[in-house]
Design brief:
alpha+beta, Uridine Diphospho-n-acetylenolpyruvylglucosamine Reductase, domain 1, 3 domains, Uridine Diphospho-n-acetylenolpyruvylglucosamine Reductase, domain 3, single chain, about 325 residues, Uridine Diphospho-n-acetylenolpyruvylglucosamine Reductase, domain 2, four-stranded mixed sheet, binds flavin-adenine dinucleotide, about 30% strand
């Protein structure tokens, strides 16, 4: 089933709640809808859109937004060790996490409460609390409009990295992810070493899937603004990865600076939120935009009236102040349109 919306305000379709017009939005349910959409309804540029939790619209959208609505979760294999599931791109990510927790399937519980759809999860390889979507993804199914065909890409060919994938590079704007396959473990494998997780899980009675999910949800609720109330797109900036010699110089000056190892021993990941906080910007706002007072990585639409351009202008200011203090460039994580 295809639903077409024309000339509508997209404030309800982006978590920053910025008001812009979209000339055409097409929602679809099944794979067979896609050939019909690209033959009869898309005449120029297009872009896939999920829940709009990682996009910032800075102008009216003249191209077609294509939104998958397939909400099926299907078990495709089940052994004594693991279950493989195929999840429609339109499933709400957190509903999928809850589905796994209810069935005692391990792997995505630390990714509880990340807003968005399953179809977007591989795009930036969503991650939180020491876990990334790639840890469980076995393959990604997609439609390739250029060739009017469907392809399935095994996880090892998806170019997954920290907030990275092939979908942000060579396949950007060229495919619509229709479903994602996940391999979930039946063996408990709690990952509790990040932040406050272990303490919260222990206070709930131990490392069950339910307790881990509850702990993560409670930590996230206490730190992050609720998008239903305050427009934001989660972390606006990526944590910078710097050369070890730069890190060595900084740690002498800032011995308490949080830092994390990376796969490359010559590089170190720093916490962008800490850098912003050290510049005195936590809770700072100007006009309609501000830095969240509990998580400096998050920029917020303080008045509900911010435009995308005002958010960008404010973000540039934050980047400049951080650069002047630390000599480090912090990149945006959000997709700016
Ligand atoms: C409060 C808050 C907290 C957050 N916390 C986290 C966090 O802890 N970790 C984290 O990694 N992210 C986090 N995010 C970011 C966001 O939740 C993720 O990026 C999520 O995957 C976005 O899903 P979406 O459906 O809203 O995608 P959208 O914002 O709609 O799209 C994001 C990008 O993916 C592309 N895309 C979407 N669907 C498809 C598809 N079917 N096929 C091809 N391309 C597609 C879009 O074109 C766009 O480039 C947070 C956001 C918010 C608002």
């Amino acid at each position: 089933m295809i639903h077409i919306f024309e000339n509508i305000d997209i404030a309800a379709r982006n978590s920053f709640h910025v008001h812009q017009q979209a000339s055409k939005i097409i929602e679809f349910d099944t794979n067979s809808d896609l050939a019909e959409i690209f033959t009869n309804h898309v005449s120029k540029e297009w872009m896939a859109l999920g829940g709009g939790n990682n996009v910032l619209f800075t102008k009216d959208i003249e191209f077609t937004l294509i939104v998958p609505k397939n909400e099926q979760i299907e078990i495709i294999s089940d052994t004594s060790e693991s279950t493989t599931v195929r999840v429609g791109a339109g499933v709400e990510w957190d509903d999928f996490v809850e589905w796994c927790v209810k069935r005692q399937l391990w792997g995505v519980e630390n990714l509880s409460l990340i807003p968005g759809k399953v179809g977007a999860a591989p795009v930036q390889n969503i991650g939180a609390y020491g876990v990334e979507a790639k840890d469980c993804i076995s393959c990604v199914e997609m439609y390739f409009p250029e060739q009017n065909n469907f392809i399935t890409l095994a996880a090892e060919h998806c170019g997954f990295g920290y907030r990275e994938s092939v979908f942000k590079h060579s396949l950007k704007g060229r495919v619509i992810i229709t479903a994602v396959e996940f391999r979930l473990s039946k063996t408990p494998q709690p990952k509790l070493e990040y932040g406050d997780v272990i303490r919260q899980v222990e206070s709930l009675g131990g490392a069950t899937l339910e307790n881990i999910r509850e702990a993560i949800c409670s930590i996230r609720r206490s730190k992050l603004p609720d998008t239903a109330i305050t427009g934001n797109a989660g972390s606006f900036f990526k944590n910078p990865i710097v050369d070890r010699n730069i890190f060595d110089a900084l740690i002498v000056k800032y011995p308490n600076m949080p830092h994390y190892p990376t796969a490359d021993s010559n590089k170190v990941k720093l916490a962008a939120g800490w850098l912003i906080d050290q510049c005195g910007l936590k809770g700072y706002s100007e006009g309609n935009v501000g830095v969240h007072d509990r998580q400096a990585l998050v920029l917020i639409n303080t008045t509900g009236k911010a435009t995308g351009c005002q958010v960008i202008e404010f973000a540039h200011k934050v980047q400049k102040i951080v650069f002047e203090k630390f000599g480090i460039e912090i990149d945006t994580e959000v997709n700016i349109l």
